[in-house]
Amino acid sequence: MASKVSKRSVANIKGILEHENGVLQIRVEDIETPYVLSDFLKDFVDLEVRMSVVHMEDLD
Prior knowledge:
Blueprint: E1 16-20, E2 23-27, E3 35-36, H1 37-40
Antiparallel strand pairs: 1-2, 2-3
Protein backbone atom coordinates (compact mmCIF):
# COMPACT_ATOMS: atom_id res chain seq x y z
CA MET A 1 0.00 0.00 0.00
CA ALA A 2 1.44 3.39 -0.97
CA SER A 3 1.84 6.07 1.65
CA LYS A 4 -0.81 8.79 1.71
CA VAL A 5 1.73 11.33 2.90
CA SER A 6 4.97 12.11 1.10
CA LYS A 7 7.61 14.77 0.70
CA ARG A 8 9.54 15.42 -2.48
CA SER A 9 12.86 17.21 -2.96
CA VAL A 10 13.87 18.21 -6.47
CA ALA A 11 16.97 19.80 -7.99
CA ASN A 12 16.76 21.10 -11.57
CA ILE A 13 19.46 22.66 -13.68
CA LYS A 14 19.67 23.36 -17.41
CA GLY A 15 22.94 24.07 -19.17
CA ILE A 16 25.95 22.60 -20.93
CA LEU A 17 27.52 19.56 -19.23
CA GLU A 18 31.31 19.82 -19.07
CA HIS A 19 33.94 17.34 -17.88
CA GLU A 20 37.26 18.87 -16.87
CA ASN A 21 40.03 17.28 -14.75
CA GLY A 22 37.65 14.57 -13.52
CA VAL A 23 35.00 17.10 -12.43
CA LEU A 24 31.50 17.23 -13.91
CA GLN A 25 30.09 20.73 -14.04
CA ILE A 26 27.20 22.49 -15.73
CA ARG A 27 27.62 25.84 -17.40
CA VAL A 28 24.36 27.80 -17.18
CA GLU A 29 23.56 30.62 -19.59
CA ASP A 30 24.11 34.12 -18.14
CA ILE A 31 25.95 32.74 -15.05
CA GLU A 32 29.71 33.19 -15.17
CA THR A 33 30.81 30.37 -12.86
CA PRO A 34 29.73 26.81 -13.74
CA TYR A 35 28.01 24.65 -11.11
CA VAL A 36 30.04 21.65 -9.93
CA LEU A 37 27.57 18.78 -10.06
CA SER A 38 28.70 17.20 -6.76
CA ASP A 39 28.25 20.53 -4.96
CA PHE A 40 24.87 21.14 -6.58
CA LEU A 41 23.58 17.73 -5.43
CA LYS A 42 25.17 17.60 -1.96
CA ASP A 43 21.79 17.77 -0.17
CA PHE A 44 20.96 14.37 -1.67
CA VAL A 45 24.06 12.51 -0.41
CA ASP A 46 23.21 9.19 1.29
CA LEU A 47 19.62 9.31 -0.01
CA GLU A 48 18.13 7.01 -2.61
CA VAL A 49 17.61 9.10 -5.74
CA ARG A 50 16.44 8.75 -9.31
CA MET A 51 18.46 10.63 -11.90
CA SER A 52 18.00 11.34 -15.58
CA VAL A 53 19.85 13.43 -18.12
CA VAL A 54 18.04 14.65 -21.22
CA HIS A 55 19.37 16.06 -24.47
CA MET A 56 16.88 17.25 -27.05
CA GLU A 57 17.75 18.07 -30.62
CA ASP A 58 15.48 19.76 -33.14
CA LEU A 59 15.20 17.71 -36.32
CA ASP A 60 14.06 20.28 -38.86
